[in-house]
Design brief:
Strand content: 25-35%
Number of domains: 2
Radius of gyration: 19 Å
Number of strands: 14
CATH architecture of the largest domain: 3-Layer(aba) Sandwich
Distance between the termini: 53 Å
CATH superfamily of the largest domain: Vaccinia Virus protein VP39
Number of helices: 9
Length: 284
Amino acid sequence: MYIIQVLARTDFPDDLHLTLERLAPWGWEENRTTDQARAVIHCQQEEEARRIRRVLETTHPFLTVQTHQQEVKDWSTAWQDFFTPVHIHDKFIILPAWEQASPKPSRRIPLYIEPGMAFGTGHHPSTQLCLRALAELRDSGEVRPGSSFLDLGTGSGILGIAAVQMDLHGLGLDSDPVAVRNGTRNRSLNKAGDSLLLGTGDLDCLKQGLSFDLILANILSRPLIEMAPSLVSYLKPSGVLLLSGILREQEEKVIQAYRRQRSWCVKVLHQEEWSGLIFSRETR
């Protein structure tokens, strides 16, 4: 495994995130202290790591870019070392798969996750924003029992599983077959059954005319903006759209892209540097 570190003395320039989205669409890690900002990218190929470093050093010469190798661990066991329960709102608690054998009393709905190689342990702020928004929508009655949903970019399946636990039914899609296999495992752990169908693909694999009461997409800003017309075409006129994976400085661009499709009521949620957007029923 090749690790690329990008360091800034105070904070990153505004355009760095756009560069990282282009170079590492699979994602990166960020953390900040009072005197330093740090981004970390993981690559499997040496040539890919060299290319990313070369582009970063050319486009952002005032940043410090470092690379090093790290021994690849067995992910199937290594992730267990850091998986801790996550409490979301007053609705959900995310637990590792092995907790299912000895469940502890809780007023929250348990979501059992074995993340494997798929995104969605529930620890990332963008996932937590989606779960929090989903709970709020259900509590407010904007999303009702029996509603249909599409979870685009389902990853570990955690959002679709949470929706099923609130008496919804729907479809989870991901372009990565590894993620779909992982989601299938987590669906079984949570006894979601036929209420959550999973498939490999994207919007192009959906039938024209198909529509959903709720669409969830926890992806990244750029693809969300690009797919706005197509994504909205699969939402019922009175449906709710929930988007995340959006950095705060990018939220206005995403909002404008979707406002060009419909007249919306928009609610914005924040956690750390991430935004979640709820587009609800059309205004009259």
